[in-house]
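JOB MANIFEST
job_type = single_chain_structure
chain_count = 1
residues = 413
[input]
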Amino acid sequence: MLRGARQVGKTWLLKEFARSDYENVAYVNCERDKSVASIFQGDLVPDRMLQGLSIAANTTIAPGTTLVIIDEIQEAPNALTALKYFAEERPEVHIAAAGSLLGVALGANASFPVGKVDFIDLHPLDFDEYLRATGETQLADLVIQQDWPLITSYAVRLTELLRQYMYVGGMPEVVARHVAGDSLNDVRAVQLNILHGYRNDFGKHASPAVSLRIAEVWGSLPGQLAREHKRFVLGQVRKSARAREFQDALQWLTDAGLVHRVTRYTKPGNPLRAYEDAKIFKLFLHDIGLLGALAGLDAAVLLQGAGIFDEFKGALTEQYVLQQIVAARTVVPMYWAPDDAKAELDFSIEHRGALVPIEVKAEENLKSQSLRSYINRFHPSEAWRFSLANYREQQDMVNVPLYAIGPWLKDNH
């Protein structure tokens, strides 16, 4: 089961997998072809369903050499249940499924065969993948090698490419248009088209009342992140708004994979979730390019040198780091803010049985007051600072250049 937001490339990836590793593919789309859902009505007998899938895909399904792809599977809820019977009775048939709004469907109590399906989450391209897509494979390989003196000699070029990535983002179609030489205006048009498709989903897959609130939350996100303290505040969505009114909207956006909810914790206890304050959180989008498009970020910011890193009070840089963490670790981090509210640390992730604090700096200034406060209070075994400065090991923290954090996170898993 391949999960991910719309337009992150799930269909292309599964078809490419089938093309390169199988003799044949049987592809059906439950959203585009409404008749596919009828295959999963009535008795969920694998042989009967395979016959229907073979007819719908207009091909023969040969066990082991044909990959059956059931796309947008959430549009046929019984198909989710059917996976159990395929796994139990016809395990020799290779089946892959994908769902853009799978989390929304499961949140609506669709029956799901727990333990019978392997999940893979697909995210927008991270910076390493962006480098490779734009033909900068050698630079990408160099960053992975973590040869810091040699990497430093290419810091200006890597920073320039990172600025481009922060505007273009990691949505595959957007990156493809950028690589093809389309103008930044054309790139922005593709981003806006994707955002338009998301808004259509609000109305199609949620009740009118909830879809209105989803749109309100969605539209407020750039303003929320532009605040000094980026904590999500309902009053910025609608005056006198109540939390219970917007619970469904927030959950829908999370389940659809369109936002990442970064919750607060007050101390690095074990287990960490015991110290989580889930009512206080930050909301980030799943793609930095789409955040810029939603906010109306002007392409001229790319001409301002390092200016893009400071946009929205550094929110774009935090969004970038969050995106790299999710891609590398497949987990959404938390953030630290004590009850006295005198300090706040951008992110923390669990690593080697401990919690690693992470401070994000949008410039080369290495004064880390919040990180220093955290270190003095809790004495972590490791602490990381991500900034535009070069790699540097200090007594109680490590500074990693922003353009190198993806490989760093994967290597230090």
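[summary]
The two ends are 24 Å apart (CA to CA).
Residues 2-121 form a domain with the Rossmann fold fold (CATH 3.40.50).
exit_status = 0
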